[in-house]
Design brief:
Helix content is about 35%, strand content about 15%. The chain is an alpha/beta fold. Belongs to the class-V pyridoxal-phosphate-dependent aminotransferase family. SerC subfamily.
């Protein structure tokens, strides 16, 4: 029936746990029997203050964030954070190193170049879908920071390791991979993530920053992007997206209840392996253009049709998928093909259904 949830393989905003949405629905009109919706309440109310503090605590707990890191929440999306990173950190030396492995790191590097010097640690990949070996990276010891995107949502490239930077602060965009694996936070200067893939609705960006990196924003940095100021104001400098933070906290509680990051990591590996193995077994009917060592566990781009894909067949694939309520499988407009996103709220059973469909589609169209 219409109340059944769709098989949503969208890249973002993306599927959230059904239980969380139901809980939000139940308390939407009257939060804790107040007769008011949470979204009608002051961001300085005791109710929202608790949500604000609890979200920070659960992020700290799930990711085991050390006490010398601040957790802040801001608006402006991932793209806002691209600028904020530069405006908060570039002042140290005026130059920063960027590893460009796909669409989003390229955008981040372009944005940062408005505020200082940007050095690409390897030339823009002539073959997309790979990460050059770290021994070939040209790191500047004088860089204010080294930047990389942990998971390139559009391209399907995920770092299988945390880069080494010889003491230069490491900055990572984890918008599409936060809370999907265990991390040693002490290796990072800053991690940021838009919530709208694995941890909540759009409208909130989580920033985890080592305290010694605060205190030196550029003069031009707007207060709403000033990490030092936001930290001092406990993320209520101005009106936050209270609804987004409220839902995010519930998603984080759901992650905790469902086995935490260890279990999210297990599931991510199982789900993505199932899909990649299906491609291997298809003998070339399904193909993934990404190097095996950096294939994303979160966003799986692939082509349908022998010899690297057939657009007509891919259109049909999408039509047939939708008949089975499998939605948002179309690849990013810049890449084409198909992309299946397998965030935390997508279950192994969902992926099994996708694989079943893929096998049947191949039987019908793959000879
Ligand atoms: N970084 C990554 C890895 C993303 O996937 C996205 C959006 O999809 C962004 C940054 C940009 O985020 P926003 O649309 O919130 O500005």
């Amino acid at each position: 029936g219409s109340s059944q949830s769709a098989l949503n393989f969208g890249a973002g905003p993306a599927k959230l746990p059904r239980e969380v949405l139901e809980e939000v629905q139940r308390e939407f009109l009257s939060y804790q029997d107040s007769g008011m919706s949470l979204i009608e309440m002051s961001h300085r109310s005791k109710e929202y203050t608790k949500i604000n503090n609890d979200s920070q605590s659960i992020i700290r707990e799930l990711l085991n964030v050390p006490s010398n890191y601040k957790i802040i929440m801001m608006q402006g999306g991932g793209c806002g954070a691209f600028a904020a990173i530069a405006m908060n950190l570039l002042n140290r030396t005026g130059t920063a190193d960027y590893a460009v492995t796909g669409t989003w790191s390229a955008k981040a590097a372009k944005e940062a170049a408005k505020y200082g010097e940007v050095n690409l640690v390897f030339p823009k990949a002539n073959k997309p879908g790979s990460i050059p070996d770290q021994s070939t990276w040209k790191l500047n010891p004088n860089a204010s920071y080294v930047y990389y995107c942990d998971n390139e949502t559009v391209d399907g490239v995920e770092f299988p390791y945390i880069p080494e930077t010889n003491g230069v602060p490491l900055v990572s965009d984890m918008s599409s991979s936060i809370m999907t694996k265990k991390l040693d936070i002490s290796k990072f200067g800053v991690i940021f993530a838009g919530a709208q893939k694995n941890i909540g609705p759009s409208g909130v960006v989580v920033v985890i920053i080592r305290e010694d990196l605060l205190g030196n924003p550029m003069k031009c940095c707007p207060s709403v992007f000033d990490f030092t100021h936001i930290a001092k104001e406990n993320s209520v400098h101005n009106t936050p997206s209270t609804f987004s933070v409220y839902v995010m906290e519930k998603v984080l509680q759901w992650i905790k209840k469902n086995g935490g990051l260890e279990e999210m990591q297990n599931q991510a590996l199982q789900k993505s392996s199932l899909l990649y193995n299906t491609m291997v077994q298809s003998q070339g009917f399904y193909s993934c253009p990404i190097d095996e060592n950096c294939r994303s566990r979160m966003n799986v781009p692939f082509r349908v049709g022998f010899n690297g894909g057939d657009e007509k067949l891919e259109e049909l694939f999408l039509v047939e998928a939708e008949k089975l309520k499998m939605y948002q499988l179309k690849g990013h407009r810049s890449v084409g093909g198909i992309r299946a996103s397998l965030y935390n709220a997508v279950s192994l059973a969902d992926v099994q259904l996708l694989v079943k469909f893929m096998n049947e589609f191949q039987k019908q169209h793959g000879s």
